[in-house]
Specification:
This protein is an all-beta fold. The chain has strands at 39-41, 44-48, 53-64, 67-78, 84-98, 104-116, 121-134, 137-150, 155-159, 175-178. The chain has no helices and ten strands.
Length: 213
């Protein structure tokens, strides 16, 4: 039986659309995502029934609710329990997902991205960067060689070292910009204006794949 039931398929291999079973519930990721179909757009698709995998190649865009995954190649697998696993590779693979109950998004880029719905984790490997946005405002940004984000515990780890060297991080060291939560203004007083960013502070990218509402 195929890993993913196809609801519609047209103009393959130039364009294809697939609907997938729901992933396991999550704690801090957008819960509505588990009820959404998985849609994929790519230049070509290869389905392996023996391995229960679907391999998309060529400017791949995968969406599932608020989740967006982009890459030159994306391999998607689903186990018998309905858990979904995705591996995105390419020059710069991209992942984005809304957090539950707040106007916040987690997104990241790397040479390889592993998405595991069973463990509810996302792993960015190779010249990796992860950002957290409040609305459209960049709040936190972290760079390293390997970044693992756990949606259930809301904890992430970052590894640096020589392998972390890349265009976005020539030093190879872990780098982070963490914005403190603003203090509430006293009653009747407008909040203070936010000072301009220091030149040494990490700045948001001007162009980010996947877009943002």
């Amino acid at each position: 039986m195929p890993a993913f039931p196809f609801s519609s398929l047209s103009r393959l291999p130039a364009w294809c659309l697939l609907a997938a079973l729901c992933s396991a519930p999550t704690a801090h990721a957008e819960k509505a995502d588990r009820d959404k179909p998985m849609n994929a757009e790519a230049d070509a698709l290869r389905y392996d029934d023996a391995r229960q995998t679907s391999v998309f190649t060529g400017n791949v865009i995968i969406t599932k609710g608020t989740i967006v995954i982009r890459g030159a190649r994306v391999e998607v697998r689903q186990d018998t329990a309905g858990n979904q696993f995705g591996v995105a590779t390419g020059q710069r693979a991209f992942f984005r997902q809304k957090r539950e109950g707040v106007d916040e998004f987690i997104e990241g880029e790397a040479q390889r991205i592993d998405y595991d719905s069973r463990a509810d984790t996302v792993k960015f490997t190779g010249d990796a960067v992860m950002r957290r946005y409040k609305g459209t405002q960049l709040n936190d940004e972290t760079l390293g060689n390997v970044i693992v984000y756990n949606n259930t515990t809301d904890v992430f780890t970052v590894d640096g070292g020589e392998a972390a060297r890349g265009p976005g991080n020539p030093s190879g060291r872990v780098r982070a910009m963490l914005t403190p939560n603003p203090k509430p203004a006293p009653a009747g007083q407008a909040p203070a204006a936010r000072p301009p960013a220091d030149g040494a502070t990490l700045q948001p990218s001007r162009q980010i794949e996947g877009g943002r509402p």
